[in-house]
Design a protein that fits this description.
mainly alpha; 3% strand; 2 domains; three-stranded antiparallel β-sheet; 14 helices; 407 residues; globular
Length: 407
Amino acid sequence: MQQLLNKTKGDKVIWTLVILLATMSLLVVYSSTGSLAYKMYKGNTEVYLFKQVAFICVGIGLIYFAHMVNYTLYSRVARIVFLITIPLLIYTMFFGVTLNQGSRWIRLPIINLTFQTSDLAKLALFMYVSRMLSRKQDQIKDFKTGFLPVIIPVAIVCVLIAPANLSTALLTGATSMMLLFIGRVQVKHLALVGLVALVPIVFLIAAAMIQHNSGNGVKPRTEGKSKLTARYTTWVNRVESFMYGGSAAADDDDNYQVNQAKIAIAKGGFFGLGPGNSEQRNFLPHPYSDFIYAIIIEEYGIVGGAIVLLVYLVFLFRSIQLFRKCPFAFGAFLSLALSFTLVIQAMANMAVNVNLFPVTGVTLPLVSMGGSSFLFTCVAIGIILSVSRYVEKMEMKKPAAETEVVA
């Protein structure tokens, strides 16, 4: 064990934050799945706890393996992995496992497990964009030779993800824009992309307003519609619920989720009801994934929710410090891109839980119940720690080199 710890390198603060979030995950997932496990497994309430322990063990293993790999290898495989994800996203769109009228998953043969291809696509995209930004710094101000080669991959991935998972596409696009801004892309080029991206958003808001003003209080149902039409109806319903508070109809799922999350937060108060004492876990849909932050506040109060928020902000701060220390552009851009996407996803999840953002399907990184998103998050953190390990090694060599010069 001591030998393994000696080989573990990278930012110790990031490692500590990972352990903190994993511990919180165990506590909250066990609490939020107790009733579900009792119902599904005839009284065995520890089933999901053991599954989460297994996911965390595998995830820590992935972090350790990814952080031991020289981060320059990710630059070499970035283009190949990105090109593989494009047909995977297309296949998922038409032949993937369907849930809520959206095809987000594909089923792996033999092992019969599903994974969300958008998670792989985000990782591949940020590796590829980081590679392109690092190689095109001399031409990055030029629209044709610098900007287009970088923005086209972003547009392709976002367009392919959007039909099944609009929220993930928007978050990926926002993260990419921040990365391009830091990568010295001209503001006028980014503003042009922003205006184009605003068109569908404005259209959705207008459609929600028209539906609300012309409707009778009952939202259109998605049953019997094509996948794309059903997803469009879902988006409009969610925007309408966010803007106008939804209807009182029992089948208004989005409004029901938001209301139950509000009740959980109100019950939590300042210090919470205590670990395992959540009451809304029996009423709140997906309390172990999309709405796990509401359960955290209910059990640990506003203090617990603020601590979780602070953990993600410290993670972002350490990644920004890593960006400033890394001597090579690819490692700097890659670590910053992956940290941005994790923290932005966390902020989006927390914003949904406290009703500052329309209902989405994004999870709380490293805290929500394990799945493909959890494992890909661990790989992303491992890559960040790989860059950190290299920076740490360079800093250890500096004093020795300076001593030689003085001598």
